[in-house]
């Protein structure tokens, strides 16, 4: 009889977790937004995969895009365009992180535009001068297609493909940066 009483006293003596460390119910607005986003996410194999990936990536992306709706819309678009191009969505997030830090209006010193820093000459090459490279869907379609092409051209060598994408073939600073961000921050097993 004494052992259970001592055990109970020992358990009562343990400190309780801080209130801010306890799991909290998601905000109703975020829950509704996530439900709608999951329902519209057509590039996932099932609803559970969509919920898990979107929630995980949304949490990681919060520091760069604080707005729930903007963040989930971007993630859904990244997932769709990456899959269309045969790329891993988490790799595309690492490229965006390195290129623009998620600033859709970013313009490089050489004129590359948008989140994936696409050069505007591609619009003329494709006969689509009306395309807006600061529109995330357009920018991701161009960027993912270009990166996928270079990855195939380099027979799967990610470092060389990233260097081509960045216009720095033969140098490995940029590929190392992207791969580092991918492995340290965005990689999903």
TrEMBL record:
CDD domains: LT-like. Belongs to the transglycosylase Slt family. This is Transglycosylase. Residues 1-18 form the signal peptide. The lineage of its organism: Bacteria, Pseudomonadati, Pseudomonadota, Gammaproteobacteria, Pseudomonadales. InterPro entries: Lysozyme-like_dom_sf, Transglycosylase_SLT_dom_1. Coiled coil: none annotated. Residues 79-172 form the Transglycosylase SLT domain. Keywords: Signal.
């Amino acid at each position: 009889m004494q052992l259970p009483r001592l055990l109970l006293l020992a358990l009562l003596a343990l400190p309780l977790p801080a209130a801010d460390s306890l799991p909290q119910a998601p905000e109703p607005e975020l829950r509704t937004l996530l439900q709608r986003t999951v329902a519209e996410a057509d590039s996932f194999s099932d609803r559970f995969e969509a919920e898990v990936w979107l929630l995980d990536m949304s949490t990681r992306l919060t520091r760069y895009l604080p707005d729930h709706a903007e963040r989930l819309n971007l993630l859904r678009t990244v997932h769709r365009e990456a899959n269309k191009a045969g790329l891993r969505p988490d790799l595309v997030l690492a490229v965006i992180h390195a290129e623009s830090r998620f600033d859709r209006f970013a313009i490089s010193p050489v004129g590359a535009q948008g989140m994936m820093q696409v050069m505007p000459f591609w619009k003329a090459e494709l006969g689509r001068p009306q395309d807006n490279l600061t529109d995330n869907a357009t920018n991701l379609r161009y960027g993912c297609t270009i990166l996928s092409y270079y990855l195939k051209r380099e027979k799967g060598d990610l470092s060389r493909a990233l260097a081509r994408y960045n216009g720095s073939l033969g140098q490995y600073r940029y590929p190392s940066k992207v791969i580092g961000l991918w492995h340290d921050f965005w990689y999903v097993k």
